[in-house]
Amino acid sequence: MTDKYKIRGYKDGDEEAIVNLLNTAFGYWGDLETWKWRYKENPGFEPEGIRIAEKNGEIIGCNHRLIRDIKLSDTVLARAAIYGDGCVLHKYRERGIFPKLIQTGLEYDRSSGALMWLGVTRGDLAKMWIRKLGRIPLDEVTMMIKFFDPHSAVRSIVFTINSFIIRDDLQEELRKLDPKILVRMPNAMFYIQVGGSGLLTVKEIRVINRQIRPDVTLEGDVQSITQASESALAFLKLFLMRRIKVSGKIWRLLKLRSLLSKLL
Amino acid sequence: MTSLKIRTYREGDEAELTNLFNEYFKHFIHTSKTVDFWRWCYLKRPDVSPEGIFIAERANRIIGYAVVGIPKGGMHLARLYDYCFLEGDKATALELIGHCISFARKNKALGIIFVPCKQDEIALELCRKFGFISRPNKYYVLAHLINDFKFYEKIFDVLNSQTEKLPSCRKILEDLNSNLVIRLRPFQKTLNSYRSFTIQIQSGKFNLTSGETETFDAIVECDTTTFVKLLFGTIRLTKALIMRRIRISPLWKLPLVFKIFSRLPVPYPVYIPYGEWLTH
User: What would the pLDDT profile of B191-204 be if each residue is shown by its tens digit?
Assistant: First the structure.
């Protein structure tokens, strides 16, 4: 397979392919309307600010940016390139396409008079930005979340996992793994398993049913269960701190987590 | 005292809301908010409706606002995109966040996401009060310098204007008339890839000149990342020295470098409201 691809700016008609690419890469990113609002209708939109990697007519990577003024103080302004969504299709990763997109983007930023590049990114991705692309961490931001009830929390976790599973090869691996997880929270109990569609389903259990034989039982409060679902490290930390109790075939849970982390 | 009134957005509010935001976050490095930008960011946003923009008023004066969005697809978690209230006004903050939560519940959201400003004690206290939990996966504000020298010039403009306001700082700098050569190593190292400039301190002001002056008091060598971190106060000089990220020559000029670097950190932290993030 040849590795030839070209980097170019955005052209009218690319939008649908870009949205599909973002949804494939991020599980669920959003719809065309959101993309149009975020980039095309933005007061700072310029087609060259959206860098696209194309191979044989297929869009395999993209990187967005918008030029804005940053207030360094009451009187001092500096022009900056604000980093937007960017990704490369999984099968084309580790080939230097993303750094190339960033590099050509920086040339555009420079020509636009931007003095700095500024972006907010998730912790696991930030490591890549810092180590491989030399970005400088200026601040750490904590995202707070409030679930209205335990069912919402579990549904939200399952939705996040499903949004990744919905992609190609992972469904087959999940079917093979076939995890059956019982989640016990104060005053609530949920049973998670693979449904007919190949995605995880969640069912609230009101009365203990002896026919349900889970592989793994996870016990903890809403806060701990939500935090444990975020990363293998958080899971381990909470387990050691005895904030969550795990019994049964723990390896199934860890395997599920590692399946997801491959894609994140 | 007149009572607090919470209402939803009305056409024509945006100018006052923008001014309020710029005033409230004036001690932060933030993206400059204009009326046009505010309209695009919240009024045109697909998941925000005018009913999700809550405005706090007292005596017909806007004293706070909060914007909450209900995404159509996906996880159906409401998002508190932006908020702002007069400094120290806990009652307003409480009412605004309470309204956002009720709005999210009414719209059958599973929960609500909020990214409070790290330095905002009231918002953090309210998060605890309303039962928000922090996600272990943190987010980072990352930077990269495209035109480094011009950027440093801007930063030193900020430091100069700050020094002018504080007579004690000016006095310290006035006593420090000196030339400091800074040699920076970029992220991608190549032979002789040092980038040099000189910080001249004269009459209580910082002046930057590109290149190295013939006479100087000390040379500071470090990588760009460390220097930017020192500028933004995310690392201290002592730590950088211990970690061998910075080298001072001659070493006996260390007290002078310490004095100069203690004046360096930009006085303002960076804040980007959640509604302005362009990343997933």
Answer: 567 788 999 988 88
